[in-house]
Design goal:
Strand content: 5-15%
Bound molecules: glutamine
Mean pLDDT: 97
CATH class of one domain: Alpha Beta
Helix content: 25-40%
Radius of gyration: 21 Å
CATH topology of one domain: Amidase signature (AS) enzymes
CATH superfamily of one domain: Amidase signature (AS) domain
Order of helices and strands: HHEHEHEHEHEEHEHEHHHHEHHEEH
Number of helices: 15
Low-confidence stretches: none
Shape: globular
Oligomer: single chain
């Protein structure tokens, strides 16, 4: 048995029965990292010694009969989640040597359950990007075709899950960064409701949009991880106080009578026909399983979503990233003559081109005289989009759309055209604007490349999403397909 191929629930079962140990599981995963990561470059830091140490402690805990579903389970963390004593780079030169003195709340919670940290995974610098090509370090490749992008910004986490370099990962999603790479790599990615998961210790990009969530091999595992990471945190004032459900109890293969809307605005011009066909097939399947489908749902303001996102996101980023001034932490230009010179040189060398583009866009849109024309207008669009989602959820239990308008594109293809790059998120970012939850599940292939189905729910509607996604997954089994590169062994 190849232990690295297991899902969390399969591994937890074997651990509990003491048929395998966490050390064996961790060794198998580390072996897979050695065999495969050179082909796809998912990981920025591998914490092998720490992982084996954690695994030994997990085995003792299991022996004591004190195990939970994540005890002894190997996982990776996107490298914008603070880990005490482990470098947290945001794939930026600015934070290349930053070692946080504290853990993000989600990390603390996972460690409390006895998780094993395999390493930190690559991202577009500061999570700004859709392809992983904006990492300051290296490019993460798509395991289904290494000439294609992995999707971003959680490309490293998605690829690590797809290639069995981990059993699960945590990512962050500001405009699609969990769901897009999940779709591009044929794994499950869940963006929870804004505030459902604490963001304390997530390096901030756009604070009104950022949310942490799981990337997993199946829907069952997404529920398991949510059971651990969700919940109120007094260190994040935006985290919601609502009681936590048991997400695993949503895993019921029955969607009879559920009302599902298909909003036409998500089927944008220029969408790849193969993707449309796969999504239509998925919708027909949901209908066959008893869901009541309305193919004529409409959220008209969605068409302004991309424009509003690329004002709100950069504005918030320009405020959040002002802290990288070379004084408190991160890179600091050593050769400056004055404070201003130090700040200029630090930012000039510490940030890559895409981050600079966002900071300039945001600073411009917030500056005197432009604030009303751009930022305020974008906020008004945000209100409209929110209201339209609210209206839709009076009628539907969930909405279904493609996760991405295309399958993974070629490396380099969109680098010279930021608008083309931004269009990859056209179906995902309205979800962040509205603050609602959404999940991407594997939904088939076009020319050997994966397609993702996005299900969108009402605020705190994760349970409904998990139920529909689980039912769909059980009926199709697309998630079981594995890229050939993952079966290389040494
Ligand atoms: N691709 C989008 C952007 O570059 C979303 C990124 C994200 O969700 N972190 O802003």
């Amino acid at each position: 048995m190849d232990l690295c191929r297991l899902t969390i629930h399969e591994a937890a079962d074997l651990l509990k029965k003491r048929e395998v140990s966490s050390v064996e599981l961790t060794e198998a995963v580390l072996h897979q990292v050695e065999a495969v990561d050179g082909k796809v470059n998912a990981l920025v830091t591998v914490t092998a010694d720490l992982a084996l140490d954690q695994a030994r402690r997990a085995d003792e805990r299991i022996k004591r009969g004190d195990a939970t579903p994540l005890t002894g389970i190997p996982g990776v963390l996107k490298d914008n989640l603070c880990t005490r004593g482990i470098r947290t780079t945001c794939s930026s030169r600015m934070l290349a040597d930053f070692v946080p003195p504290y853990n993000a709340t989600v990390v603390e919670k996972l460690l409390g359950q006895g998780m094993v940290i395999i390493g930190k995974a690559n991202l577009d610098e500061f999570a700004m990007g859709s392809s992983n090509e904006h990492s300051a370090f290296f490019l993460t490749r798509n395991p289904w075709n290494t000439d294609c992008v992995a999707g971003g910004s959680s490309g490293g986490p998605a690829v690590a899950v797809a290639t069995d370099e981990t059993l699960f990962a945590l990512g962050s999603d500001t405009g699609g960064s969990i769901r897009l790479p999940a779709s591009f790599c044929n794994v499950v990615g869940l963006k929870p409701t804004y505030g459902r998961v604490s963001r304390y210790g997530l390096v901030a990009f756009a604070s009104s949009l950022d949310q942490i969530g799981p990337l997993t091999k199946d829907v069952t595992d997404a529920a398991t991880v949510m059971n651990v990471i969700a919940g109120h945190d007094e260190r994040d004032s935006t985290s919601l106080p609502h009681p936590l459900p048991d997400y695993s109890s949503s895993l019921v293969p029955d969607i009879k009578g559920m009302r599902i809307g298909v909003p036409r605005e998500f089927f944008v011009a220029g969408m790849q026909q193969g993707v449309v066909d796969q999504i239509n097939a998925a919708i027909a399947l949901l209908e066959g399983l008893g869901a009541v489908i309305d193919r004529d749902a409409s959220l008209p303001s969605i068409r302004y979503g991309l424009a509003a996102y690329y004002i709100i996101g950069p504005c918030e980023a320009s405020a959040n990233l002002a802290r990288y001034d070379g004084v408190k932490y991160g890179y600091s230009a050593p050769d400056a003559d004055s404070m201003w010179d130090a700040m200029e040189k630090t930012k000039e060398r510490g940030f890559g081109a895409e981050v600079k583009r966002r900071l300039m866009l945001g600073t411009y849109a917030l500056s005197a005289g432009y604030y009303d024309a751009y930022y305020l207008k974008a906020l008004k669009v945000r209100t409209l989009i929110r209201q339209e989602f609210e209206g839709a959820f009076d009628k539907y239990d969930a909405l279904v759309t493609p996760t991405s308008p295309t399958v993974p594109f070629k490396i380099g293809e969109r680098l010279d055209d930021p608008v083309q790059m931004y269009l990859a998120d056209v179906c995902t970012l309205p979800v962040n604007i509205a603050g609602v939850p959404a999940i991407s599940v594997p939904a088939g292939f076009v020319d050997g490349l994966p397609v993702g189905l996005q299900l969108i729910g009402k605020p705190l509607g994760e349970e409904t999403l998990l139920r529909i996604a689980f039912t769909y997954e059980q009926a199709t089994g697309w998630h079981r397909k594995k890229p050939a590169v993952a079966s290389i062994s040494i």
